[in-house]
Design a protein that fits this description.
With about 280 residues, this protein is mainly α. Helices cover about 65% and strands about 0% of the residues.
Length: about 280
């Protein structure tokens, strides 16, 4: 009970997810929503608009001409790119540059970006999950670790140290030290941010037996692929063996699944560049 009370207090301290991005997600879930509605929502948020334009006009994208507005950006890059960029900027804004737990947020961000891109590609390949929900799940599945790093740093550092020293999965070390692991913390945050129940459940269950379909399946595969490739680091050394048949026609091992994802290597290279950027206006 003591741990649960502290966790709820910490959740309330976390900043709100931008209302504009929440509205974008609502519109995205409705297949009849016109792209122009999404553009209008983002354009009415001056802070989000400024951050999107700053990223798009940076060397990271290397566009041939300056982007002057969200509608212009959609014409050049497509609505899905702009939508995912808005979600990504909002999520990155939750991550502090330093913390008293000594948790490496730069490598955490790299891992999260890699998971997001891989999960999105997997959703497109497997055709049983929404690519946008898969992207968000990959991006935010470990967000509970940020909450612990900010508001329970000493205990979280002890869990990180125990995991690193013994090879114990981090969520199990958190259960020993904190009483509740980051999946519960992340799910509470997702609920606070009014994400759909499928995403809340996916974040809460991502260390349980992986489902055979849906967003949970894409997240599990993406998470393990990033760990096999040592792309970033979210503090958990455990790589779970690929359950038989989970990769479907994509492959029987994580590298085989990864190799089936056309464009993944390029997206990971871009994520590596993006992870060093600062979106604050």
């Amino acid at each position: 009970m003591h741990f649960e009370k502290e966790l709820l207090i910490a959740v309330e301290k976390m900043p709100a997810f931008p209302k504009s991005v929440q509205r974008v997600l609502e519109l995205t879930r409705n297949p009849d929503s016109a792209p122009k509605l999404i553009v209008e929502v983002i354009a009415k948020d001056p802070v989000m608009t400024a951050r999107i334009l700053r990223v798009l006009n940076s060397a990271f994208y290397g566009l041939p001409s300056k982007v002057t507005g969200v509608d212009h950006a959609v014409v050049m890059l497509g609505i899905n790119t702009i939508k995912n960029l808005a979600i990504r900027i909002a999520a990155v804004g939750m991550i502090p540059p330093t913390n008293d737990a000594g948790f490496d947020t730069n490598r955490y961000l790299l891992h999260s970006l890699g998971c997001a891109e891989a999960a999105r590609l997997l959703a497109q390949k497997l055709d049983d999950a929404d690519p946008t929900e898969a992207y968000i799940a990959g991006l935010l599945h470990d967000i509970g670790k940020i909450l612990y790093a900010l508001y329970q740093p000493r205990a979280f550092r002890a869990a990180l140290d125990r995991s690193a020293a013994t090879g114990l999965a981090l969520h199990l070390a958190e259960q020993e030290v904190l009483g509740v692991d980051h999946t519960v913390a992340g799910a509470l945050l997702a609920k606070k941010w009014e994400f759909p129940d499928t995403l809340v459940d996916c974040i809460r269950q991502h260390h349980q037996a992986p489902p055979r379909q849906g967003v949970g399946r894409t997240l599990f595969l993406a998470n393990q692929i990033m760990k096999v490739r040592a792309f970033g680091d979210a503090g958990n050394p455990e790589i779970v063996a690929l359950p038989e048949g989970l990769g479907g026609s994509l492959g029987n091992d994580y590298e085989g699944v990864a190799e089936s994802l056309a464009g993944l290597d390029n997206l990971l290279a871009q994520a590596g560049s993006y992870a060093g950027m600062k979106e604050e206006s």
